[in-house]
Write a structure and sequence with these properties.
- A five-stranded antiparallel beta sheet has the order 1-15-14-13-12. A five-stranded antiparallel beta sheet has the order 2-11-10-9-8, with no helix packed on it. It has a four-stranded antiparallel beta sheet with strand order 3-58-57-56.
- With 603 residues, it is mainly beta.
- The termini are far apart.
- 7% of the residues lie in helices and 51% in strands.
Amino acid sequence: MPKMPRPRTLLLAGLGLAAMAGGLAFHYGISRQVRSVLGEDSARRSQLQFVDLADPPGAVDFWGSGEVEAVCATPSSLLTAGGFGVMDDGGSISKALPGLKVPVLSQWRGHPVAGLASGGLFLRRGGRWQEARSSFSPLQVRALLEGPGGELWVGARQGLFLAPWASDLLEQMDAAPVRTLALAGDGSLLAGGEQGLKRFQGRRPSLLETPDPWIDWVGVQGLDLWALTPLGLLHGSLGGTLQPVPGGQEVRAAVQAGNQVFAVASGRLLRFEPSGRAAEEALPDTPRRVFASGGVLFADARAGLYRKGPGGWALLRPRPQGFPQGSSHVNALAEWRGRVAVGLFDGGVLLGEASGEGMAWKPLSDNSLWGINALMPVEGVLYLAGLRGAARYDGRRLTPLAPGSAYALARGPGGVAVGYGHGVQLPDGRLLSAFHGLPGNQALALAAGEELVVGTPSGLGAIVDSKVSWRVTAGDGRLPNPWVTSLAQAKEGLYVGTYGGGVALRRPEPDHRPGPGSFHPFPETAGLKVNPGCLAQVDGRLYLGTDGRGLFRLSEDRTHFAPLLVALPSRRVTALLQLGSFLLVGTDEGIARFPLSLLREGS
């Protein structure tokens, strides 16, 4: 018989197996933790590449906001940026950038670096712009700061990022959104945004206590801390309690220069001493923003950019040719009495007249309407549709039409029809809505012909003889998307633009019998978001403006749409207009004017 192991031997063997299993489990657990940490670390880091951007061909004019939003003094030139792009001492240097509005500007490694409002980080080197590309989504950059070691700190809506010196990496340091950055005297970094003010000592963040978590700006001199929130200007010591500064309640923009803070409040420029005492700075114009760069103080005002020197303030750079103060988000375009009428998304109407090689812009004399959605000239009268109603302007007086938020205009045989949020007002005064058979109440698009076609977020319908003749809704499955935003008549039928489904061609019923007819989508436009008023016949061709994908054009044989690789202020196209031999493209960042000869095939 085989010899049986003794109980002590069995006990020792069992303990050995248990130790081995425990060791394996510990090793597996540690390995998993290491893999987890490495995976997280890898997910927060990305290779950083800089890709040259080529200047687009041809001469294109741009108009946006003339307000300066960022200033950067370089050894060779003073750079200013805003809704007009980026300018140096010789003029605009924005041609290659994919967006016109540049609210953030700084230096890195001796080169200008910019953040676009439409997203992305760009470096200018060797007279050319380069795009910073990584595996992170395009950053919505709000603040840039070069550290003492040559590293670049990037504050974005997606968080805080670091590009170290002499490295090809971009690392996400924190996921909280950032609006402002500053370096403290002890080497720590301050980052403020919608979720509070954080202090980074090394890689460890700590949240500082503030009366309001929304931080618009932060400044620090040594351990003396300033911050701007919706409550106003705050002051205190780093690590201490921030208190409201007397006279700082109305501050909306601030900058630190030495141990002083300069701030814009209620149309005045104020100077705050380290003690918190305020005094008004004598600027010869109404300030809008204030900047400090290269040890010099600048202020943007109505006439342009001012610089403070030993003798006081002097106008350094006149305001770029562009829109007056306020929005550059274009929502509608029309030609009226030899001028260009511009309807603003968050404003009224601007009128542009040729001035030399450019355009001079001024507001309509009566801008009581706001949030303009459509403009249409009829026999010398300009009709307007906006969020505060519809009206007609004869050059002297604005005459309101029926009340209610208005979105679309169309001229038919009987007069002007207006699309409201609660239905369609016909020229005879009748109002038709979903109650009368339309697919929805909100009339976003109108096209007048033998029938008045109405586009709504719920589908497409038509009115004949003041009655709803037919409709197509989401349940019918005929439209690529029921959210109809834009309509354009052509001899082959009606082009229907949708928000999220691209474009379809509606052909009428045989023998033009009443009915919805047939719908033929363009597959290459599937998923495109067509903005209101962004289907337009220009020089015999149909152009298409999209929300985020730029400009498209229908082929000569009318079989497909193709993108046009042209420089735009923004890829969010919001309005189209033919103006003589030019195409005007409105965007949420201003207007581009293209010679039609530049857009022809082969150009």
